[in-house]
Amino acid sequence: MAAFQQALANFNNTQQDNAPSSSTSVSIRGSATGAPSTRSLSSALRGAGITREQGMELDGTNNGGRVGRGGRRGARSAGPLDQTGRHHPSNNANNKPYQKPGSLASRMTPASSSSRDGRHPRNGSNNARNPAGTPPVIKQLQTISGKAEREHSKSELTKKLHGEEMKEWIRKRVIGDGILDMSNLQNDPWLKENGILPPGHPNAPPNAGTVFWRIIESVVQKGAGITIRTLSLANNNLDHLAQLSKLPLTLPDIRALDLSGNPIKNIGELDNLRAAGEKKGKATAGAGSLKSLVEIKLNGCFFREKMLQQPDGPNIYKHDILRRFPGLRILDGIELERIILPIDRKPKVRLTEEQKAAFVAKPFTFPCDVQSAFGEEGVKGPAMQFCAKYFTLFDNDRNALLPGYAPNALISISANTLPSRSANQVEVMKTRANRPQPVSFEAWTNLPSRNFFRGTTSIKARMDSLHNPADAERLLRWWNKVVPRTKHPLSDPEKWCFDTWVLDGEGESTKLCLMIQGEFEEMPSGTYRSFSRTFILSPAPPGSPAANAGWPAIILSDTMTVHSYLGTFAFDERNRSLATHGVTIQPPPIIPSTSVPAAGNDALVAQLSQRTGMNAQFSAMCLEQNNWNFQAALKNFEEIRGTIPPEAFV
Fold it and tell me: What's the CATH fold of domain 150-335?
């Protein structure tokens, strides 16, 4: 109280200097004649570094809130004064510093026997944090307060994951040659005993899957030299597959994967098993892809059962699975009807720098040069007549194209929006200033484009991208109102590249494949686009609408792909020849035959010599190599005509 008395004495001296009368008195409680104001006394107390003790009140206020002489209504609760003179709330019942609910201090300090609202306090035995069956080692980690002890406990758990017991447990899970059984891990006794939470456990850390796959790779694939090709992850309570995102990186050779019995809710979770390139529609996905996967089991997964109950559910389900894993042959234990080509994947060969240098230094040879020509005799004329008529009408009057299609013909357009990375792009950029500013590809991608990797991902969208003349109204509406207008360089032959050959058939049943590459201007913007177009043609039957309209051939199939501008440097006359790129044209040597044709084959030799212009010796050799089959020999001659030496002709 000495400090208070000193402050009071200072205050009295001040009041005495200013007071009109010497009878003024001050009291701590009550009201006296000439009592000082509350604000003046508070200022004096603060100047002495004193705050009001609990229960201590100044003149002018009381518990009832009555206003004293010179004071205001006491509406504020009792509490200490800070340095600004404001009242703070009183301390709690235990006279502890104020703690914000849920703050770090409240979590670090021991809890009282009951909380403010009567609920039980949070402590180390919280059932929500430690459910029944939680391994002791996990409880220990949650209850340790010291950082050093906590880090030590984590290191002990890490030692278990990389210890010999864990490795031996992994080895026992290999149940056959390349077969690893990792199913029902949550009920595994050894994992429970050691407090290891597997992928799929509700409390498993986010990287649990990555740790498991890396241990398997280290112990089984690298340690034991066993390549894992079959993996079972059935009944692991996996409701999402984020834990499997690193699986393709560590176990890329998996051919069969069992995910049955897991409550996977969305089919999109399967994208965690795909590489980033695959998700974007790239054929070369790179690392992180299950390229070898041919079988997958999803029986009992939530999304599968839900999809199968929808209208046309089995087809939609199969379509969505094959879109993600196009190499599948077996789905849910059922063999799919797929066309399998007998192609063996060759191992990747990695060359040393010396081997690469030797390979580059070796001159490159090719048996024949690449020249502008048509593969079969007699197809150039009809093909050129067809193109001159077709592209003129496509630019100016698409309605007139309709008679040129067979009633069952299929028509589609696909947009390839990926930029070119070829060396020709350098030449393209040199002429960039001569072309209008390119516009968006949106007009082509919204056709819808028949691009299975970009937008057209459902069965309905794929069917909508196909058109045929049987529904002429829909086709003409699509051509005239949806497909952008075009302007092809019809008067510049250097802007075109044609490849054509006979597919099969003879006479009126002949089927001709015509592949065209070139460019056009998209109207009205004038943006330059490159395109590839493939027609399957057949002779127009006499009296048919195509023949009556002057078409030399009828269209059975029409497939068009639109690209960003690529230029014509790849196929113009200056760059077409391989010899201009340092390639040596070296025809294969032809060894003359010394055999004498049988008497009955003289007529075939003479006939082939007359048709091809070759002398009798080379004509006989050509027939002999084709088992004296005249048609096969004639076809073989057309295929290798450019490589036959001059001395073979008469």
Answer: 3.80.10
